Amino acid sequence: MIENQNIINDIIENVKDNITKNNLICNNDRIIVAVSGGPDSVTLLDILYKLKDILKIDYEIIVAHVNHMIREESYSEKEYVENLCKKYNVEFNYLEVDIKKIAKELKISEEMAGREKRYEFFNSLLKEKKANKIAIAHNLDDNVETILLNLIRGTGLKGLRGMKYKNNTIIRPLLNVKKCDILLYAEINKLNPCFDKTNNESIYLRNKIRNILIPTLKDEYNSNIVQNIIRMSKIVSCDDDFIEQYTDKIFNESIVSRDSNSITFNYLKLLNEHLSIKNRFILKLLDSLGMYNGTQSVNIEDILELLTKNIKGKKYIKSGKFQIIILKKNLAKIFVEEEI
Predict the structure, then answer these.
(1) Within 13 A of 307's CA, how many CA atoms are on the CB side?
(2) CATH architecture of 259-339
(3) What does the DSSP 8-state code read for residue 328?
(4) Strand partners, 170
């Protein structure tokens, strides 16, 4: 009994440290907590509820639950989460959406459709409830899977660093907590979470990484592979942060004027920088105007070629997206195309 209590205390203390060190929760925060009913999200909800007294921080918990209408158990899971909310006396918000139908209509995977609809719902609740944070129950094992997934698909530093504890409105208090510890926490506290049987089916790529690749890497190559990947992630994160901060400095010094649809910038200093900084600068430029998605390396190369040639009146056009025009030597303007 004492040993169990020590395990619970260690996990709660770990999450408490994550919140404090990474400034995840502040006074008067209103937090949308994504709760599927599985062990991760239920443990997150339980810990956040208990930490209100321990942290001495005044914050409000608002639960969001999405039914993808894929599995028969989804309605009993909804009932389970709703009862949890009554137990903790927190607000319950529910979305029922036919993911199979949406995935077919959009011609995307059910996994991607589900993710898009979940975050759509969470973000709509942010506005509706005047909340400012979305708490997601991603854990250490999820992070390792994400890094390997990024590596398989092809990635740079950002993909190798994995998830962040805090990314805009998203917070991940359980990010360094092992899955086995979460399961233990749920068992000791008799939370009786729901279990999604499809997680054991190696259908999706992430499931294959979880069920086949990681166990194989552990058994055949290095039993410490998970710890090593996390160690690499921390090193990469440190390097990525430095490069990003330096790029931000160059970017901010280059801006001449900006509004919601355009940015005028002086690129003289940029042209003297390393290609890594140049690439990040262009991506930041596009991201500032909401044009990041769909951008490919060839687009960045073409934009840099335009700036390097530095010929007044020359343009780069990405149809339906944006245009960049050289106004005069070392000065360019990027427009959202619809506004031109």
Answers:
(1) 27
(2) 2-Layer Sandwich (3.30)
(3) E
(4) 134, 167
- Residue 232's identity, in one-letter code, is M
CATH 3.30.465-classified regions of the chain: 259-339
* Residue 189 to residue 187: CA distance in whole angstroms: 5
**Which tokens belong to 114?**
């589900």
Edge to edge, the sheet with strand 331-336 lists 255-258, 262-266, 331-336, 322-328, 315-318
Report the alpha-carbon distance of residue 101 to residue 320 in Å, rounded: 28
Which residue ranges in the chain fall short of pLDDT 70?
1-2, 198-201, 293-295, 337-340
Q: Where in the chain is the domain with CATH 3.40.50.620?
A: 2-220
Domain 2-220 has CATH 3.40.50.620: yes
Integer Cα distance of 63 and 81 in angstroms: 9
pLDDT digits (tens, 9 = 90+) for 268-317: 999 999 999 999 999 999 888 887 766 677 888 888 999 999 888 888 87
